Amino acid sequence: MSLYNLTAHALHEKLKAREITAVALTESVYARIEAVEPHVKGYLTLTKDIALEQARAADAGFQKGNDMPPLAGIPIAIKDVICTKGVRTTCASKILSNFVPPYDATVMTKLHQQGVVMLGKTNMDEFAMGSSTENSAYQITHNPWNLGTIPGGSSGGSAAVVSADAAICSLGSDTGGSIRQPAALCGVVGMKPTYGRVSRYGLVAFASSLDQIGPFSKDVTDCALLLNAICGSDAMDSTSVDMPVPDFTQSLINDAKGLKIGVPKEYFAQGLEAEVADRVHAAIAVLEQLGATVEEISLPHTEYAIATYYIIAPAEASANLARYDGVRYGYRTENPADLLNMYKKTRSEGFGPEVKRRIMLGTFALSAGYQDAYYRKAQKVRTLIKSDFDAAFQKVDVIATPTSPTPAFKIGERTADALQMYLSDVMTTPASHAGLPGISVPCGFVESGLPVGLQFLAAPFAEEKLLRAAYTFEQNTEHHRQKPDLSSFLVEN
Amino acid sequence: MEKYETVIGLEIHAELCTESKLFCHCAYIFGALANDCTCPVCLGMPGTLPVINKRALEFAIRAGLAIGCEITVDSKFDRKNYFYPDLPKNYQISQYDLPLCKNGQVTFEFEGERRTVALRRIHLEEDAGKSVHAEVTGDATRSFMDFNRAGVPLLEIVSEPELHSPEEAIAYCRAVKEILEYIGVSDCNMEEGSLRCEPNISLRPRGSQELGTRTEIKNKNSFQELIDAMEYEVKRQTRILDAGGEVVQETLLFDAATGRTVAMRGKEEADDYRYFPEPDLVHVQIDAEWIEEIQLTLPELPAARRKRFITDYGISPENAEFLTGTRQLAEFFDEAAQLSGEPTACANWIMGDLMRLLNTADSDIHESNVTPAHLNELIQLIDNATISGKIAKSVLDDVFETGKMPKQIVAEKGLAQITDTSEIETIVLQVVEEHPGPAQDYRDGTKKAIGFLVGQVMRATRGKANPQLVNQILTQVLSTE
Q: Cβ–Cβ of B85/A200 closer than 8 Å?
């Protein structure tokens, strides 16, 4: 019996019944990692020693018959943008190649309280800037469904390892779609909670007003378990919101009756691949058949979301990334002539081209004489986009859209054209501007065999509605049970 | 009359003496080992976030209220972007368009007149660390960073350009310093860098309403340096204008060693700080109740207190000025004056002997053994003739040393005055017998000879005899015999 391909909730039952041990489970996942990782390349750092120690601790708890938390002993992968005490955290950047945080992110503290097993740190676009994980300074991650394609981004590593069964579940971060888009492209469940729902303390900042940590999982139930573990206000993060956190497993209700679904016409416009549109329409029809009401809605400012995003996010990033200067930690250039030369060389050598592009974009958008035309105007448009959603949620419970306009594209296909790459996020950035929760669930495959994602959006702090819609869809379809065929390079043991 | 009018505005930076820094839990201890007062947050490490220290907000509001500012109920923080090694994040969390306090005013005495200077704003921001340049094993190019001060809350107090001489600017600075010390929000220790003044100076033809081109002088941390720098700068600008030249807008550094200002950066190199709202912090909402609460805890401010000392206690303006020099001194005097009901005596004792003792010991009034209760008791002992003023001086020395109450000291050392006339008479008779010469001189009309005899009586009683009684009895004895 293989363990690596099971869900966390299934594994918890086995651990609780002492059918299996967390150590055996961890060994099983590492064996899988060894087999698939040379091809998928989802991890930047593996922490097997730590993982086995954590697994033994979980086993000791189960052994004593303690009432163990649902994620105790569950092997989890962490995006390398989340600080892990004593474990290198690079953000897939050369500039943090040697950075070992002396502190844990709040989400890590919460996961450790659950007794999880940390498998390692996953690959990503450098500083979470990208939609394909090709902007990593270290390696390219391959989509398990077709190794010639990208896994999406920026949390491509976290999506790919769950898809390839090289982790039971994982954490990523979503700024403009960096969880939802790779989840769609890798055929797994990925959720961005409401902005302020999860503490950002220890999440290396890209765009502070947009960044949010969230889970990747093999099904919606695991997603709810991870949400239970990581949500909640934090005294270390002023932007985390003091709202009661419900038990999200209570929202796992297989019932769409009375659910009002809005389908925004602007999301089914130019640029959306026909096959993707078909799968999404079919998915919405499934829910309609199950008793949901579906109505077309309009979110008129959708078309400005990408342009607005590429002003606000780089503007914040230009300040957030100023601290990487070679003075205190991280990479420093060799033999600089003077201070200015050290700054210039350290940053020129330490950052990759996309990060530099965004720092320049953001610096420009904030400059005297341009701030009104760019940054301030973008903030106004952001308010309009948010008002669109506020109006829509007066009428509907959830909004259903494609997660990505296309399935996974070929490695290298969009690297030469930044604008083309930026359009990958056209379906996900609007909700980011509004701070909304969003989930992507597998909803079928295109002809070439690549997965398609269905995105649900809800009003702020209405994650429960998302989970109910996603769970109902999942329980009445088989898409989430499909696995990429990696058998050609697997050595079965 | 001078040809030009000097126009000066001031930016004062004061470190708030909160227990922890502005955005983290670190305590700042002056003189601590380098980087001992730091944590991941104030070091600006990846992923860390600022959380506002409520006490720092309270202190800023206190300062705003004391200076008569409007408090901004919906305020926010902004990022001020510039690269400098002492700035951990390479941006400073400061306030741009919604400062905590606006439109106050500072009133002070200058050359015998009351002057009121308008304040533009007071805002809260984080301090930076400092660079240390030192030679290490022959390598002179090494620099080190000490981030202990990084993140300490700083109040930036910006005046309108309404000051018209370096001396007046100093008087203004002293008034601000006095207020901040009085309300207990900053220790304003200039040597330790907790108060820093940056003047901007311009000249204009007398009578003109338009402002001339100004220069700014960076970080002065002593009043002497500040006045030297401003005086030099006024002379420099006068020379330029007299020669028909134009003053260049620039930031200057004052070199105390050469006594000259040197250009640090010009306007064309002036930084574009790219201010934008700090996304890691939410807006600061200040409710009216809190403002009222803070208002109630404000102490009486120095100007009001001075006025009260003059009118209620009949203290001279000069003495009132001295006695309100620090809050501790003013409170000491106030309490002693109320306890004893003798403000003039209290003022004389404090400004004379007590100050002498404090200066010799190099300590402050609130650290000394002497309390208003001690002083009150001492004054009562003189009033009821238990001790003479001269003995009282030595009793005060003892109080200062030991902290014992004056009555106890007088009892232990047997210092009480001899007021028993028969006891004094016995000694007087004895002295007159022992010194027949001076006694005869007195009787012969050399009245001043009595001084010698009084001295002998005091000597015999080790100063304890009541001098008035001695005089009286001696006169009697000498004239009856």
A: no
Close Cβ partners of A483 (under 8 Å, ≥ 6 residues apart): A5, A165
Same domain, yes or no: B467 and B329: no
Q: Convert the pLDDT of each residue in B453-468 to its tens digit.
A: 888 888 888 778 887 8
Check CB contact of A218 with chain B, cutoff 8 Å.
Answer: no
Inter-chain CB proximity B79 and A319 less than 8 Å? yes
B109 in the same domain as B25? yes
Active site annotation includes A404: no
3-state secondary structure of A39: helix
Contacting residues of B for A99, CB less than 8 Å apart:
46
pLDDT digits (tens, 9 = 90+) for B101-139: 999 999 988 998 889 999 999 999 999 999 988 777 777
Q: Which of A132, A155, A163, A178 is catalytic?
A: A178
Name the active-site residue from A28, A41, A79, A170: A79
| B19 and B134 together in one domain | yes
Do A371 and B49 make contact, defined as CB atoms within 8 angstroms?
no
Residues from chain A that touch B48, judged by Cβ atoms under 8 A, are 103, 201-202
Q: Are residues B317 and B276 in the same domain?
A: no
Residue B163 and residue B72 share a domain: yes
Give yes or no: residues B253 and B348 share one domain.
no
**Catalytic (active site) residue A178:** yes
Is the Cβ of A482 closer than 8 Å to some Cβ of chain B?
Answer: no
Q: How many domains does chain B have?
A: 3
- The ipTM (two decimal places) reads 0.96
Cβ separation of B46 and A101 shorter than 8 Å? yes
Q: Which long-range contacts does A62-70 make (Cβ < 8 Å, 24+ apart)?
A: A62/A15, A62/A16, A62/A18, A62/A21, A62/A22, A63/A18, A68/A15, A68/A16, A68/A115, A69/A113, A69/A114, A69/A115, A69/A229, A70/A8, A70/A9, A70/A12, A70/A114, A70/A225, A70/A228, A70/A229
A&B contacts, CB < 8 Å? 98
**Two structure tokens written together for A304:** 């400005």
Q: Judge contact between A89 and A204, C-beta under 8 A.
A: yes
> What residues of B are in contact with residue A366 (Cβ under 8 Å)?
81, 274, 276
- The pTM is what? 0.87
Domains annotated on chain A, with CATH = 3-258 (3.90.1300.10)
Question: Do B386 and B405 share a structural domain?
Answer: yes
State the residue range of the domain holding B323: 300-413
Type and span of the H or E element at A343 = helix A339-350
Q: Which of B251, B266, B290 is where one domain is finished?
A: B290
User: CA B5, CA A341: separation in Å to the nearest integer?
Assistant: 44
Shared domain for B162 and B56, answered yes or no, is yes
